[in-house]
Backbone:
């Protein structure tokens, strides 16, 4: 049963991964300053660290106010949902709402629409994705959306993928941040140029999706001895889009920095947990952008290669140094490739530690429901994510 604290921690943790992905994607330096304040080398107590992490997240959550109107704090679109998969787009879209977006749209195939509509009256479901005019239908809504989450439950039907390609092009033309997950990544693996250099794209591959994408873009297998370098290389090869490789440790990179979150999460490996993350990320990317650099002190560029979490791992090394990091000397001054396997203490002599996400409890309905009920209640009680994070 998800406790209030557990729910808060789970949501907070997702928020942290989402926030860091957003900050990596959207800003230059120096989130490091904020992180410097938030994390320290001292023996970390998870509650204390989570409190620091929450402060970082709180910086971007827009305050509730009577002067705001519906939709102002987030209108998120999920592009996905087909005959076989109706749960994934629901999980992504409802997570966006529960994290704190005001409106959540799902653009799906007509067969999936009545099913997803039946799941929740809170979602605005458009049965357009398999329509011949799908791109135009979705394009009508783009001026009113703050971010898109492309892929949950999309499936691999060529006609749908072609429509999604057009939707992605139209979104880029409007500078809309996009989170690309699941079979949206299948499309990107087939046509990497679709997001090449679009730095408002955040990719959230799982283990398998990462291997496929890496192989398609870098023409070779992932170097299993160098996860950090692999994520860095893939991000660089795609023009510094942000890549969040989900796994026992989540590894994030924007082609300049690498963040590793290794906080123990749920050991359940059930379907839907990645969908929850992608939906949450859709809102938080928008909020991070809305908050602006002053709220996150700008972002990441001074952030050194940092290994985050209870187990301090070795730093990434260049191959020349016997390590398995990027093969070329990194152009970025931000990546001090340590000659020794020890992690270089980052500025201020501390090796920061990021307590990040505990994977959301298995989304079996009762637990998810209590989580959702809990956040919803907080939302109504005038608290958004902050309330849930207390
Ligand atoms: N309720 C719904 O509507 C849901 C719908 N969903 C939708 O399903 C679609 C496909 O998404 P997906 O994640 O199931 O397929 P994908 O990632 O291609 O993996 C395929 C194979 O790769 C392997 N494999 C996977 N992980 C691995 C690992 N860590 N380490 C090693 N191997 C690993 C594993 O093969 P195995 O090894 O088990 O034979 C797995 O079977 C997508 O659109 C998504 O949105 C889901 O979101 C769930 C909820
Ligand atoms: N082995 C693991 N141990 C702990 N946490 C994990 C592990 N693998 C993934 N996670 C966490 O679970 C969440 C979902 O990751 P997962 O790999 O299940 O995504 P996914 O396959 O896309 O899920 P979905 O079924 O929704 O598509 C992520 O936050 C990730 O950090
Ligand atoms: Mg997935």
Residues:
């Amino acid at each position: 049963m998800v406790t209030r604290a557990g729910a808060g921690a789970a949501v907070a943790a997702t928020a942290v991964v989402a926030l860091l992905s957003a900050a990596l994607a959207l800003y230059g330096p120096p989130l490091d300053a904020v992180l410097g304040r938030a994390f320290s080398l001292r023996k970390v107590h998870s509650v204390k660290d989570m409190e620091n992490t929450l402060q970082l997240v709180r910086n971007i959550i827009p305050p509730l106010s009577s002067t705001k109107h519906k939709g102002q704090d987030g209108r998120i679109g999920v592009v996905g949902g087909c005959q076989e998969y109706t749960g994934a787009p629901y999980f992504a879209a409802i997570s966006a709402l529960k994290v704190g977006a005001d409106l959540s749209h799902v653009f799906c195939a007509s067969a999936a629409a009545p099913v997803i509509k039946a799941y929740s009256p809170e979602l605005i479901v458009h049965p357009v994705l398999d329509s011949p005019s799908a791109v135009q239908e979705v394009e009508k809504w783009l001026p009113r959306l703050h971010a898109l989450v492309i892929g949950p439950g999309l499936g691999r039907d060529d006609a749908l993928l072609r429509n999604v390609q057009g939707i992605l092009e139209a979104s880029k033309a409007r500078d809309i941040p996009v989170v690309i997950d699941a079979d949206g990544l299948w499309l990107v693996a087939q046509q990497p140029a679709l997001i090449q250099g679009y730095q408002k794209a955040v990719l959230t591959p799982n283990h398998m999706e990462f291997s496929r994408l890496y192989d398609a873009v870098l023409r070779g297998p992932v170097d299993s001895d160098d996860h950090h370098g692999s994520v860095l290389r893939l991000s660089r090869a795609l023009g510094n889009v942000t890549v969040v490789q989900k796994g026992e440790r989540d590894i994030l990179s924007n082609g300049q920095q690498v963040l590793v979150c290794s906080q123990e999460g749920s050991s359940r490996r059930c379907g839907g947990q990645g969908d929850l993350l992608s939906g949450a990320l859709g809102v938080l990317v928008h909020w991070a952008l809305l908050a602006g650099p002053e709220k996150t002190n700008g972002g990441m560029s001074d952030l050194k290669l940092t290994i985050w979490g209870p187990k301090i791992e070795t730093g990434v090394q260049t191959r020349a140094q016997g390590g398995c990091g990027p093969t070329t000397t990194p152009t970025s001054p931000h990546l001090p490739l340590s000659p020794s396997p020890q992690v270089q203490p980052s500025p201020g002599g501390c090796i920061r530690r990021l307590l990040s996400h505990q994977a959301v409890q298995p989304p079996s309905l009762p637990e998810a429901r209590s989580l959702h009920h809990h956040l919803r209640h907080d939302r109504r009680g005038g608290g958004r994510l902050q309330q849930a994070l207390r």
